[in-house]
């Protein structure tokens, strides 16, 4: 029997008061371990779609099932618990907590999940080190540049090695060197079997990390390369990782040397 989909979205609409429909009859099925690039013009519903999958927002109609769970039916507390256990999210505008230091922002998901503090600290140090922002661990996010904040947001999202990673323009604020590091990290995450939903205008990121591209227009799927692009070992290998990046689910906290020096 085939594995149930990681994500099954059926005919969702989303209408905000006094606004045009943000989503207008969108359906999408994502297999476990699949890596999708979501593209489309500004306002086409990309961020709204990620919010629905994360249970941060509810559709007006339709259903959203993640890992067999109807997230559109969860109350706020249950949705938060669900996210904590299974989802990592890199927000378009980072959403770091300004009152916590960088290190505490990154540690927070692990603390909420009950990870032993030494293990959490080792992983946080590793991620922040790999992403070149370890020296900012004691700083507050307000003191960081946009690119530094984005790297902290990436580290936070990967803390708990989520089965599903939702990333909204994860390289949008980064220079080419930092973008390449994040690309390698996300590729390693996906190569390790985690499902990846990646909103991106970064063609290099989409090309190297996604085996399928879904284009949104006016709140619905305008194009889907599903079936026309083979996903195989070569595709994964083309993500440009040697598998030693720190993003994977398996192995120890210290997953070997970083693939890109900082
Ligand atoms: N909370 C909200 N209240 C009212 N309208 C909203 C809200 N959130 C999103 N929208 C509207 O829904 C539409 C889709 O927004 P969304 O943020 O999903 O677009 P996007 O594809 O992520 O765009 P971008 O590429 O600019 O980030 C837009 O027209 C937006 O104004
Ligand atoms: Mg957006």
TrEMBL record:
Region annotation Disordered: where it falls in the sequence: 225-262
Keywords: ATP-binding, Nucleotide-binding, Transport
A GO CC term assigned to this protein in UniProt: membrane protein complex
Cleaved signal peptide residues: none
SUPFAM superfamilies: P-loop containing nucleoside triphosphate hydrolases (SSF52540)
Superkingdom per UniProt: Bacteria
Comp. bias (Basic and acidic residues): 225-234
Sample GO molecular function, one term: transmembrane transporter activity
Compositional bias ranges of the Gly residues kind: 245-254
UniProt xrefs under Pfam families: ABC_tran
PROSITE patterns in the record: ABC_TRANSPORTER_1, ABC_TRANSPORTER_2
Protein name as annotated: ABC transporter
């Amino acid at each position: 029997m085939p594995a149930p989909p990681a994500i099954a979205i059926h005919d969702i609409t989303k209408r905000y008061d006094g606004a045009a429909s943000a989503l207008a009859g969108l359906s999408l099925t994502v297999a476990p371990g699949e890596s999708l690039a979501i593209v489309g013009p500004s306002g086409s519903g990309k961020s709204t779609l990620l919010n629905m999958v994360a249970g941060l927002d509810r559709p007006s109609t339709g259903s959203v099932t993640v890992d067999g769970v109807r997230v559109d039916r969860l109350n706020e507390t249950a949705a938060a618990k669900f996210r904590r256990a299974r989802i990592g999210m890199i927000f378009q505008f980072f959403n770091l907590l300004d009152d916590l230091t960088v290190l505490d922002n990154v540690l927070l998901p692990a603390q909420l999940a009950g990870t032993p503090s030494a293990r959490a600290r080792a992983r946080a140090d590793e991620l922040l080190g790999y992403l070149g922002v370890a020296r900012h661990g004691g700083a507050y996010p307000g003191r960081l540049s946009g690119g530094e904040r984005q790297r902290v947001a990436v580290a936070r999202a990967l803390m708990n090695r989520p089965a599903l990673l939702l990333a909204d323009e994860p390289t949008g604020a980064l220079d080419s060197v930092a973008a390449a590091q994040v690309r390698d990290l996300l590729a390693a995450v996906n190569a390790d079997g985690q499902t990846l939903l990646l909103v991106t205008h970064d063609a290099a990121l989409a090309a190297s990390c996604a085996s399928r591209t879904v284009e949104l227009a006016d709140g619905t799927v305008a194009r889907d390369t599903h079936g026309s692009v083979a996903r195989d070992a070569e595709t994964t290998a083309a993500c440009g990782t040697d598998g030693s990046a720190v993003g994977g689910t398996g192995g120890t906290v210290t997953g070997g040397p970083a693939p890109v020096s900082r």
